[in-house]
Amino acid sequence: MSQALDDRIALLAPALFHHLGADGVYARTALFERVIEGLTKLISRYRDPSAEVMRFPPVMSRAQLERTDYQNNFPQLLGGVCCLHLHGSAEPSLPGGDWAAAASTSDLVVTPAACYPVYPLVAARGAVAEKGLLFDVSADCFRREPSRQLDRLQSFRMREFVRVGSAEQAFGFRSQWLERANELAGLLCLNYRIDKASDPFFGRTGQLLAMSQVEQSLKYELLIPIYSSERPTACMSFNYHQDHFGSTWQINGKDGELVHTACVAFGMDRLGLALFATHGARLDLWPERARETLGL
Ligand code: AMP
Ligand code: ZN
Asked: For the chain, where are the alpha helices, taking DSSP H only?
């Protein structure tokens, strides 16, 4: 971590966030939200006219997430919703008043990525037409990775475009977005590079999965220096899932083949922070091009 960049973020922080008593959980200021709104509109301008828009809540069905095996692949990140299970109208009797100890898991988990809820919805609609499907989704996401660093949050916003269709359609979508990301970063006057990546799979078997993900070029990330130039922060990801979700949810095309899927994910809070880290807290001093792009 570079001390200079670290100090720069520490100076910026009060203008952007209010710590809410738990690491990685923040209220965002009006200044920060102006930029997020600009980013949100900018991303919408890139939406294909045929894309279906869905906005997901911060919780999702536990059974649906378990079906993707998330609890085995990323147990370190998973969060569930625990509740008290009170029966009838009798007064609740809590052992020592400790509600948390008396609570147990419910049928809900906190959504770890914006695209997970879309696949079971697609599956419920039956075979996918030849032209495939496109979605524009978003969710407040949760991942259990508490940190003092402002680019690693426990609760953060994710926007995604998702493609469902043939292998060519899904792979082509991902390739197109790898191109477009250059344009987007250029419009925002951001320093960046795009690199192969892997998801943070858990454990030894996970390491093998991660290696094969890199070897097969299934995941790329757009990296921007926030705390460090040597270890820049992933602000967008470009994922080709092959038929992973197709087979998990038994989603077929009209030809009977399992569908392939791909998604491009925009980490909204990281992109916002990257803009402030690069251009500073004074919007009027940002490069003209970036201001125009974001309607600031
Ligand atoms: P992933 O599904 O891991 O590719 O995440 C998609 C995007 O969400 C990443 O490129 C980041 O921009 C963002 N993201 C992931 N984890 C976090 C986090 N802990 N804090 C803030 N943003 C995150
Ligand atoms: Zn996704």
From this structure: 3-16, 30-45, 62-67, 70-73, 99-102, 118-124, 167-187, 203-215, 244-248, 268-279, 288-294
